Amino acid sequence: MSTDQKPLPHGFAFHDMPNTAANRALIKRFRAFLNRDRYDMVVRGNGPRVAPAVASGQHPKRYRQSLPLPLSKSLRVYMVDRVTREQNHREWLKQNDRINVLTKEVRQHNDTLRTALFERDCARKEAESHLLAFHRLEATLVTKQAEVNRVNRRLNEMPRLSLWIESLFNYFKRG
């Protein structure tokens, strides 16, 4: 496959090859002549997955993702271009690095936001506590003012009382 050819959309070079000794030998021969500097060959099994799992005493979904080659009815052979895979891997690493940088920025912004919200909440709570203290002092001031007013009324009544006591004293003194 030259570099200007498009890869197969489904990814496999051979499919529905019956799992026979002749086909396994053919795959072995392909491997012998494979340009390993450029390509890798991957063989996967096809076939029913539940029956082999139940027959071997496993859970029915045991082979739901991959079926072992000895249990498969047919084979798929994938030819993987190492250069493309490495390019894709490098591209994936670049994307992953970008994602990591963006994730880090998002976390920093999130931390900054949480800190700002925490400080705002602390400032709000502090302001609320100061306001509560102010209202308590205001209530205490009103109470003290009322006491002062009562004392002032009593003090205002004192001269009258002292005049009254003095007049009584004078009355008994004369008498």
Q: What can you tell me about this protein's structure?
A:
It is a single chain. This protein has 175 residues and is α+β, with helices and mostly antiparallel strands. The protein has a domain of 70 residues. The protein contains three helices and three strands, in the order βαβαβα. The protein has a three-stranded antiparallel sheet with strand order 1-3-2. The chain starts with 11 loop residues before the first strand and ends with a helix. The model has no long low-confidence stretch (mean pLDDT 84).
What order do the helices and strands come in, and which of them pair?
Blueprint: E1 12-18, H1 21-32, E2 39-46, H2 50-55, E3 74-81, H3 82-174
Antiparallel strand pairs: 1-3, 2-3
